[in-house]
Design brief:
heterodimer, A: mainly beta, seven-stranded mixed beta sheet, 11 strands
Chain lengths: 117, 110
Amino acid sequence: GALVYQYPRRTICKSGTSMRMECQAVGFQATSVAWYRQSPQKTFELIALSTVNSAIKYEQNFTQEKFPISHPNLSFSSMTVLNAYLEDRGLYLCGARRAGGAGNTLYFGEGSRLIVV
Amino acid sequence: GEQVEQRPPHLSVREGDSAVITCTYTDPNSYYFFWYKQEPGASLQLLMKVFSSTEINEGQGFTVLLNKKDKRLSLNLTAAHPGDSAAYFCAVTGNYKYVFGAGTRLKVIA
């Protein structure tokens, strides 16, 4: 089956510092990776969609300068939250789409929870 | 772009009762639909994915209905039990982007 691992599961960082999170697809090739954020008591907002060999597409209100993403191969992606502040706290999910997969299914990882103090 | 409205935001039912959560969407080109369950402090657990060609899908203890004409997707938990207490999210996609509903916090009272 398709598995997606995210690391770290939880991070506490001081306000103004940065946090890097990783997303690893296991058992399949991920042609695209979507990064989402769930702020406390809210729903999931798309931050950006990263497709190998294509430019990363950021959604409105999210920028590369704040959330740089690396997607060097078909099994790995990472995203950094730069200069994290209180409004950046939440659960960050990566969802990987399998090459040749049907139904636009995204396989989500367990998430990386960011706590800012 | 696609907009998804999910109702109700909070739902409390007694054990053994049914619980219905509904999402309406705006983009008629959407054709993949998902229901997720999120337990406290946890990530998303896929309950069911529905393609536009199928209107009724049954899972373990729940039924998903898709009404394409009304652009409505519903999750019906039959005979809810305390273990069903969680947040539930629908997601709709037509291309690359999943658009999530705002979520429903379900509480099942024993």
